[in-house]
Amino acid sequence: MKITQTVLWLDHNGTSNTTDQCGSLSTGQVAVHVLRVASNRATSRNSLRNMVGSQRTKITQHYKETLGHIHHSIAYGRNVAVLAIGQAGAIGIDIEPLSMAHRAHIADIFFTPKEQALLNGYEDYKQREDAFRYLWTMKEAAIKCDGGTVPANLLDIELIGTLPPTLPGSAKIRTRLTNSTSLKKIHFFTPSPDHICALAFNS
Hints:
This protein has 203 residues and is an alpha+beta fold. It has five helices and ten strands. The protein has helices spanning 45-51, 53-67, 104-110, 113-120, 125-146, and strands at 3-11, 16-19, 29-37, 71-76, 80-86, 91-97, 157-160, 169-175, 182-189, 195-202. The strands form two sheets. It has a five-stranded antiparallel beta sheet with strand order 2-1-3-5-4, with helices on one face.
């Protein structure tokens, strides 16, 4: 199967530009490689992991050769994978399909009381669905950034303030995965028309 690549270059303010190839990272910049598999059928995450494995190795090797030490994180959606590369500190990335539905029983278990109240405050069903996806992707991205595990550490992540009303947008979160509480910034964006993505890094 053919794999196509797009590279999003994001800085810590959330501004970005797009190319179709590897480049050189500047300080504070993150390269997000969006790897798409051309297929009419949904590809399982295990199959997708195998398909993009060699591409992932080539990409990370390129940055290691040009920059030396790098930080990277990868996530798999439906026929699309996102690989984030940075140099200035730990990063975490997650991707979920826009068809991911709001599940109240999951929110009751894995979202903090503040986050549950935020969800319940949306009278519009679509806004509640969007907020659920925002919260889930940001939690997974932040856990990866801190080296935690899902679902064990989902309650150690909490949104500060509000979620962005539109995409792309940003939010701040508090994590308690390590011995001290830390703040992280989240960038939300859409790497493909049918997915949402969250990128986490230390604020």
